[in-house]
């Protein structure tokens, strides 16, 4: 038995053997022409447009690589993380010839062939390029725009089997390495034979993107709003000193994390703030004797 409503030639010839076959039921190809179907399509288009204007993902974008809806849904929490890491990375670059080479490392329990990262690569590209140009980046034009800008993005998928138990998220973490650049914040830079590289890593925790590593320092701070990074001598009272300066300027602290290599050596203090501190406030932070460097990042 078979039921058909689509034919190579429409309408099909009455003499067609398929039409005449006793075990075949044929119907007109008119399902999308009904009033109800047209109304449904109109609603779907309107919802897709509203979602796109809000910056949400779309599984029906014309000319975009085919990303199944289930993949879009699964990777949605990581889209914001990918873009935030790109924005953070480009703001850490200081002078020179700009960004030319970026390597993205995805750590996951999945087989590398079972992880579609095209969407995440596009969002990292968006985060890197949009803050420093007028280009609007999306899944359709990300690779083309990166090529135009001379930006090479490579990807690596690392399987973390030791952390797999059967109910893990699709991605454990995303690491972004920007090669051959100097950093405004030296602690984010790994010195190598290629002139140095900036290395940052993040995870999605409770549905929110977090920065979890900066250079060789482990941190844990939400990538929301704005971020102040300080490298200081690891000694008592540092949190209080910086917190008091921000409080006196009515700057609200939303998150704070300290990462260090060892006791009483160097530490990184990552502070999330709701408002952008004025120049005088940032100057006062830089004048704290134990702070060796700091940077403000707009995320």
From TrEMBL:
Pathway: Amino-acid biosynthesis; L-serine biosynthesis; L-serine from 3-phospho-D-glycerate: step 1/3. Its main location: plastid. GO terms for cellular component: chloroplast stroma. It catalyses: (2R)-3-phosphoglycerate + NAD(+) = 3-phosphooxypyruvate + NADH + H(+). Residues 227-299 form the ACT domain. SUPFAM superfamilies: ACT-like, NAD(P)-binding Rossmann-fold domains, Serine metabolism enzymes domain. Keywords: Chloroplast, Plastid, Transit peptide. Its EC number is 1.1.1.95. It is found in: Plastid, Chloroplast. GO terms for molecular function: NAD binding; phosphoglycerate dehydrogenase activity. Pfam families: 2-Hacid_dh_C, ACT, PGDH_inter. InterPro entries: ACT-like_dom_sf (IPR045865), ACT_dom (IPR002912), ASB_dom_sf (IPR029009), D-isomer_DH_NAD-bd (IPR006140), NAD(P)-bd_dom_sf (IPR036291), PGDH_ASB_dom (IPR045626). This is phosphoglycerate dehydrogenase. It comes from Genlisea aurea.
